[in-house]
Each structure stands twice: as C-alpha cells, then as structure tokens.
Amino acid sequence: MAKDIFRIAVIGAGETGTPLLTQLLDAPFVEILGVADLDAEAPGMRLARARGVATTTDFMDLARLGEAVDVLIDVTGVPKVREALRQHMQDSGNTHTLIVHEMVVQLMLSLLSGRLVQLKHEVEEY
C-alpha cells in the first residue's frame, strides 16, 4: 500500500536520534508525531520543540498514540524499551504500527552517508 505521508514517532533524541530526526523533519512526506527521550534537554528534544513537535520523557506516551503512528523508531539501544514497545503493541492489538530497530536506522543512515555509520549509546535504565 503506497502512502503519501508517513506518521513517525522517534524514541531516543541523543547522538543517534538527532541526525535521524533532522533528516525526518526535512522530508516533506513525513509528519513527526512526537519525540521521546529521558533527557528533556537532549539535542533532538530541543530540535523537536523548536520545530513544533511534541516531546515527552515517557516513551510509552508515543506507543499510546496507537495506530495514528505508522512507524515508531527506537534508537535508544535499550532492550527493555524494545520489549516494552513490542508488549504494548501486542496487548493493545495494534497491528498497524511498525517498530523500527536501531539496526535498521544504522543501515539507513549508512546508505545516506555512503559509509558505515556507527551508532553511539550511553547505557541508561528505563
């Protein structure tokens, strides 16, 4: 099914999420529904707010948007976040939203830059 616009939410707004968010914000076929990070002052959170995008420090706020989200991108690198998202989608019956793992993001960013991009993560507990 072809789409005219992709409704995206991003979890993780630090060194990995910010470059991705910059690309997404500049794409005319993308609507960013929200950005989440534990650090309300992370670079991507500041960028999102400056561009009028909703931000939250609770990533589950984005999951609770339900089927309004086409793609939920998780670039936290935290297995507990990934598992909580999967469990929420299963429990809520949301079969529409696709959860994209950071490995796919690494591939996309690498393809865009023409070289292998290394993702950086600090270990954080959620």
UniProtKB/TrEMBL annotation:
InterPro entries (UniProt xref): Asp/hSer_DH_NAD-bd, NAD(P)-bd_dom_sf
GO molecular function, one term: NADP binding
Domain of life where this protein originates: Bacteria
SUPFAM superfamilies given in the database record: NAD(P)-binding Rossmann-fold domains
Domain Aspartate/homoserine dehydrogenase NAD-binding: residue ranges: 12-87
Stated name of the protein: Aspartate/homoserine dehydrogenase NAD-binding domain-containing protein
